[in-house]
Task: structure prediction
Amino acid sequence: MGTMIKLLNKPLRTFIVFTCVVLACSIPAYFYLIESIWLDELDDHNLHLKEQIQTRFNEPNTAELNKKIELWNQIQVSSQITPASDFHKDSVYISERETGDNGVMELERFRGLFSTVSLNGKPYNVAIETNVEEVHETVFAISMITCLFILLLILGFILLNRRLSKRIWMPFTNTLEKLKQFDLNSAGVINFVNTDIQEFAELNETLVKLIDNNVRVHTQQKEFTQNASHELQTPLALLKTKIDLLIQDASLTTQQRKVIESLDNSISRVTRINKNLLLLVGIENKLYESESVDLSELVKSLATNFTDFAEDKGSGISMNVKDGINIQANESLVEILISNLLSNTVRHGVPNSGIAVTLNEQVLIVSNEGKGSLNENNLFKRFISATANNPGTGLGLAIVKEISEKYGWRVTYTFTGNQHVFSVFF
Result:
């Protein structure tokens, strides 16, 4: 499973990316908009200055006019008045040139107005230029302020998202926790927290109906299994008894004896299945009480009991069992769990190979040599391995898992170094 993210964080990321894209687009928009406004203002300023020149320099005395123009040109370097040969239309332009003070030269832009005015009835050219470099600084300052507010906006999104997610999703989180803790075998009623959010209310209502149906079906299945198993016990016992009597009949032919022995094997297998089904129903119905169990002694005793069975297949059982390990569980169930693991290991192990049993405070491990990995998905399911060619019932590992889950233990299977390894973590 890949990296998981929370539901509300997913649209938040999209919002943040969208905000950053809008910010990136807003900077050039700010630049062109502010520059356009700035140039319009400069054009108005230059035009106003031209009108002032035309008004203030309307001197009828030519000599006095020339003095004023000379003095103006000396003081106002950015606006020069020069005699013209003719009148022409106003023109607006942008020029770039190097300017500077104290030998430090910089390339700057100027917005210019070139026009002709009439002074004392004669045409004069008026060239007015204004530095427009300030617009870059203005745009930069606005962009920085915009970035600051966008950053505050994103931080606000994140903080608000966290607060809102906790409050809005609280009913969903509560529902999820109730579902995690719900045990189908308990057949109890699940009560979700009331919510005024329509979607969550519909979800809870649907879950209640779904759980009620599943509990009813599960209860019916358990009752059917329990009743059927109990009903089968007596007929199976009678069949077994009659078959045993038949086998002891000395008048049977060899062919008849083989048929009856085959029937005996089948009846024995059905009897074991029936017994295991009753055991599973008992576990599900919590009929087994817990007690203090000396696990170390129990493992040693059962492993010793299986030694002869293993030696029949040429295998040996080695033990690495730590002493003094006690657990709280039902001793009969723990014995069944260990016996099923050992029986499964000896029965399906490679002949003339070793079987290892390890026990410490954390885990019980039973391993044996194998030729290939088993199907982990079906390994602990009921009747998966119960085939006509398999002497087992297909319930052994399912019972191991059921007992482990009853006590909150975790049972796992791995295939490492040609070894089948079954582990029960306490």
